[in-house]
Amino acid sequence: MARWDGRVLKESATDVFEEHRPVLFGVAYRMLGRVADAEDVVQDAWLRWSGAERAAVREPRAFLVRITTRLAIDRLRQVQSRRESYVGPWLPEPLATDFGGTAPDSAERTVFAESVTLAVLVTMESLSPLERAVFVLREAFGYPYAEIAEALDRSEAAVRQLAGRARRHVEEGKPRFEVDPVRQRDLTERFMAAAAGDDLEGLLSMLAADARLVGDSGGKAKAPLRVIESADKVARFLAAVVSSAPAGLEYSFTELNGGIALLVRQGDVPDSVIQLGIRNGRVQTVYIVRNPDKLGALAAG
Predict the structure, then answer these.
(1) What's the sign of the alpha-carbon dihedral 92, 95, 97, 100?
(2) 298/22 Cα distance (integer angstroms)
(3) Buried-state track 2-11, b at ≥16 Cβ within 10 A, e below 16
(4) Neighbouring residues of 68: CB distance < 8 A, sequence distance ≥ 6
(5) What are 55-94's pLDDT values in tens digits?
(6) How far apart are CA 171 and CA 131, in angstroms?
(7) Residue 91 half-sphere exposure, CB side, CA atoms within 13 Å?
(8) DSSP character for 101?
(9) How far is CA 208 from CA 163, 175, 283, 285, 294, in A?
(10) Strand-pair partners of 213
C-alpha cells in the first residue's frame, strides 16, 4: 500500500488510485445501485484526488473513501427524485461480482457478497442517504465507527445511532434468502427447466405459496408494471412468457450480485436477467431485469 513520508511520493497518484478503485466502486455501487452512477462518482473522486495536496495525505485509502462516500451521498440525493417517477418497480442494475481484492478473505466473502444482493440493495432504498452510507461502510467494509464519523463529518455517537437505525430497517425488510451457491444453482436450473418445459406443476412445486415476481423494465421493455403475488400467478406468468419467447435467445448462468443468475441474450445483446431469492428450499422471489439501460454492462460478459 502506498504511503507518503510527508515529502516523497512512493507511487504515482494514478497507481495509488487504481489500487483502491475496486473499493471505491464497491462503496459507490452499493450506495447508488447503478453501475454508470457509481463509475461517475469514482471518476469525480479521481478528479478530486488528482487535484489534491497529496503530500499532506497520510492515509490515501481513507482519504479516497471519504471523498467517494460524500460524492455518492450527493449523487443519491439527485437520483432519488428520478426514481420517484420511474415506470414500474425499480431494481438495482445487475453487477458481475468478481470481488478481486475488495473482500479481504474467504471468511468475510459471504458477508461482503450479501451486501450487494438485489434483496439487500432493494431494502436499502428505504434508508436515508446518510443511513445508507453508514450501513455500507460499516456492514460491507467493516470500517470502525470513528473512521466513518470522520468520513461523514459527524460525531461517533451520531454515526452509531445511524448505524443502529439502518441495521434495524434492513433486517426488518430483508428477506431471509439462502445464499448457498450449490443449492441456489441447482434450484435455479430446475426452475428454469420447468418454465422452459411449460411444466406448471413443476414450477408450483418449487415456489413458496406467497412467492412474488418483481420485474424492472423502466417502461423500455415488456415486463409487469406491478409486483405479481402468489405462486399460482407467478407460475402462470412465467410459463406464458417462456412459451411466447422469440426464437434465437441464448441462455447462460453467471454470477451477478453475489448469486447465480440466468442471463438471456438475443445475439450479443443482453435481453434480461433472472435471479431467484430462495428461502427454505423454495423460490420466494423472482427478480427480472429487462431495462436495457441496466443491461449494457453485461454485453461483453
Answers:
(1) negative
(2) 18
(3) bebeeeeeee
(4) 24, 27, 28, 41, 42, 45
(5) 777 888 999 999 999 999 999 998 887 778 889 999 999 9
(6) 14
(7) 33
(8) G
(9) 32, 13, 6, 9, 28
(10) 228, 286
Cα 156 off chain centre by: 27
Q: How many CB atoms lie within 10 A of CB 135?
A: 25
Cell of 6: 510527508
Task: Tell me the one-letter amino acid at 151.
Answer: A
Q: How far apart are CA 72 and CA 183, in angstroms?
A: 35
Contact 205, 199 (CB under 8 A): no
Give SS3 for 96: strand
Q: To 5 degrees, how large is the angle CA 126–CA 129–CA 135?
A: 80
Q: Burial level of 196, CB count in 10 A (0-12/13-18/19+)?
A: middle
Q: What is the DSSP letter of 56?
A: G
Q: Which three cell numbers stand for residue 232?
A: 399460482
Q: Hey, how many other C-beta atoms are within 10 angstroms of the C-beta on 131?
A: 20
C-alpha cell at 193: 427447466
Q: Where are the alpha helices (DSSP H) in the chain?
A: 13-32, 35-50, 60-84, 106-114, 118-123, 129-135, 145-152, 156-173, 181-196, 200-206, 231-243
| pTM, entire model | 0.86
pLDDT tens digits for range 181-217: 788 889 999 999 999 888 999 999 999 999 999 999 9
Could you tell me the three cell numbers for 54? 497529496
Q: Report yes or no: 119 and 277 within 8 Å, Cβ to Cβ.
A: yes
- Which whole-number Å values give the CA distances from 211 to 35, 253, 288, in the listed order? 28, 22, 14
C-alpha cell at 18: 487504481
